[in-house]
Specification:
By secondary structure, this protein is of the alpha/beta class. 36% of the residues lie in helices and 13% in strands. It contains 13 helices and 13 strands. Bound molecules: pyridoxal-5'-phosphate. The site of pyridoxal-5'-phosphate has 14 residues, from helix 5 and helix 6.
């Protein structure tokens, strides 16, 4: 315990932190340590201002003229180009639209149609289940005998052979935060003629992503986690420019038409990424995403990753020093370089412990059956927050406060 970081030392780390300036740009409640930016990013103050302005000036005052005057119709493309810069994609390769689950449906549909002679889809079984559910529903409705070949982190590459149409994977795991080797897996898929589809929900805004450098084919991801876009904010969708002429998706609505305001009877897809759109977009949710994108661009993904790793390391060190025998087992990779933006621990009483911790103002979350997740989205966090979080957790364990029956009842959303 001799080298245990003191609270004052954590404050000194904040004083030397080049990203510390961003902390005051968030509208966080006093006294709360928010370690759940990996699930719902906190609100940038600028997003709240922008939302109020869009509601008043663009909706209330501008009315329908805002589709042109306020640039509403172009938002999916304009914001898509901004997300593109964070994930190593080019202009015109990304749009913002709908949700991640829907976008996954679109890109997997498009990929299967580009590989009509193949029937196997490789997925990581332990992935966030919506990805499995969407592909299961899609292949059921196609009725063409497609099969999912489930594998796990260490067996994924071996699961890729010449029968595989598409590899559908999430770069950073929602529960353990382990990061897959996007470059190696995509290269293996390419060598076997399969397409590589990446879900970036837990990577964009947290770790550097290079879609083009990896030669990825398609990607999706949400804006409400590390991008601070707000609850239910629109997701993004990437189609590599080389596929855009041929890639087609089945949700062919008027926003994906080549000339939406010609009101033609028959569908004709837009030339570029626009063919991935379907219908009218949630404009207020869209405008709310821009403030978060601004911040991440100003901070830089490299600096974000460096601070996130430093916060996570401080947390791990303090956990090891202060709660060595309390039953917490690290569920994330031991080497921080192999994990995304959060750190996970398993504990047999994880649920009531997390609930007691939240009641003490430290907000993380719990994933069944036993995983506590602590997110280190670094723009709104200080090193001293990490120190205080472990301090409060240690108090809850030492006083056995978590055994209070009030913390045993399971909430609808965990
Ligand atoms: C958060 C997350 C989603 C969310 O899907 P929605 O359609 O936005 O609810 C999907 N997949 C993964 C891997 C996620 O982490």
């Amino acid at each position: 315990m001799s080298d245990l970081v003191s609270r004052a030392a954590a404050q000194a780390m904040d004083a030397a932190d080049p990203l510390a300036v961003f902390v005051t740009e968030f509208a966080l409640p006093e006294g709360v340590v928010y370690l759940n930016g990996n699930s719902l990013g906190p609100a940038p103050k600028a997003a709240l201002t922008r939302l109020a302005q869009a509601a008043q000036e663009e909706w209330a005052d501008g009315l329908i003229t805002s589709w042109n005057k306020a640039g509403w119709f172009a938002l999916p493309y304009r914001l898509g180009d901004r997300v593109a810069r964070l994930i190593g994609a080019g202009p015109g390769e990304v749009v913002l639209t709908d949700g991640t689950s829907l976008n996954l449906f679109r890109v997997v549909s498009a990929a299967l149609a580009l590989r009509r002679d193949r029937r196997v889809i490789v997925m990581e079984g332990s992935n966030f289940p919506t990805n499995n559910y969407i592909v299961q529903g899609l292949i059921e409705s196609l009725g063409q005998g497609h099969q999912i070949r489930f594998a796990e982190k260490d067996t994924l590459e071996d699961a890729i052979d010449d029968d595989v149409a598409a590899v559908v994977l999430t770069q950073a795991h929602y529960k353990t935060a382990h990061v897959l080797d996007m470059a190696a897996i995509t290269a293996k898929a390419y060598a076997h003629g399969a397409l590589a589809i990446w879900d970036l929900c837990h990577s964009a805004g947290a770790i550097p992503v290079d879609l083009k450098g990896c030669h990825a084919d398609f990607a999706v991801g949400c804006t409400y986690k590390y991008l601070n876009g707000g609850p239910g904010g629109p997701a993004y969708l990437f189609v590599a420019s080389r596929h855009q002429g041929a890639a087609a998706q089945p949700l062919t609505g008027w926003w994906g038409h080549g000339a939406p305001f010609a009101f033609d009877r028959d569908f004709r897809p837009a030339e570029g990424i626009g063919r991935m759109l379907t219908g009218t977009q949630p404009i207020l949710s869209m405008v709310a995403t821009e403030a978060g994108l601004d911040m991440i661009e100003r901070a830089g993904t490299g600096a974000i990753r460096a601070k996130s790793l430093a916060l996570g390391k401080l947390f791990q060190d303090l956990m090891a020093a202060r709660l060595p025998d309390a039953g917490f087992a690290l569920a994330s990779p031991a080497d921080p370089a192999d994990r995304g933006g959060h750190v996970a621990y398993d504990h047999p009483s994880g649920y009531p412990i997390m609930k007691a911790l939240i009641a003490r103002g430290v907000i993380g979350d719990f994933r069944a059956p036993a995983t506590l997740r602590f997110g280190f989205a670094p723009l709104h966090l200080r090193f001293v927050d990490v120190w205080d979080a472990v301090d409060r957790l240690a108090q809850i364990i030492e006083t056995e406060l978590w055994r209070d029956p009030a913390y045993a009842a399971v909430d609808a959303v965990t």
